[in-house]
Specification:
This protein is of the alpha/beta class and 127 residues long. It is built from 3 helices and 8 strands; from the N terminus they run E-H-E-E-E-H-E-H-E-E-E. It has helices at residues 13-23, 61-72, 85-94; strands at 5-10, 27-34, 37-43, 52-57, 78-81, 99-106, 109-115, 121-126. Strands 1-4-3-2 form a 4-stranded mixed β-sheet. A 4-stranded mixed β-sheet has the order 5-8-7-6. The radius of gyration is 15 Å and the shape is globular.
């Protein structure tokens, strides 16, 4: 068994697609109409056949409450791995990304947290 798809709730699918592709550097894999919304997934450019991340609309009160609660408590919704966290931190700062936690060493890993502009905090980690 393997993870093939995971999702995060986003306030605006178009804004999220732009941020996740143009700012973070993911590649759009799927963009299919699904009723009033779309099934949009992005993948890592390093593993285009790997796990897909669904940019799921939060058009549901439970989703909105969940997303808002995590954000207000400062809890990241997911974690992305990076090879050089300081380099990635500086690159994202240049793109105007707002960090709530700069790179911080915690044992064997270094973590940083940023706002994805779509209602989520995202953690990046260098293992």
């Amino acid at each position: 068994m393997k993870i093939v798809v995971t999702s995060i709730f986003v306030e605006d699918q178009d804004k999220a697609l732009e941020f996740y592709t143009e700012t973070l550097g993911f590649i759009k894999k799927q963009d299919v109409p699904a009723g009033e919304f779309r099934w949009i997934t992005v993948v890592s450019p390093d593993n285009q056949n790997g796990t897909e991340l669904v940019l799921e609309p939060n058009d549901n009160q439970a989703a909105k409450d969940y997303q808002n609660s995590l954000f207000e408590q400062g809890i990241p919704v997911t974690m992305f791995g990076v090879d050089d966290i300081q380099k990635e931190y500086e690159r994202l700062l240049e793109h105007g990304v707002k960090f709530t936690m700069e790179p911080t060493k915690m044992g064997e890993i270094t973590l940083a947290v940023f706002d994805d502009t779509c209602g989520n905090l995202i953690q990046i980690a260098q293992l």
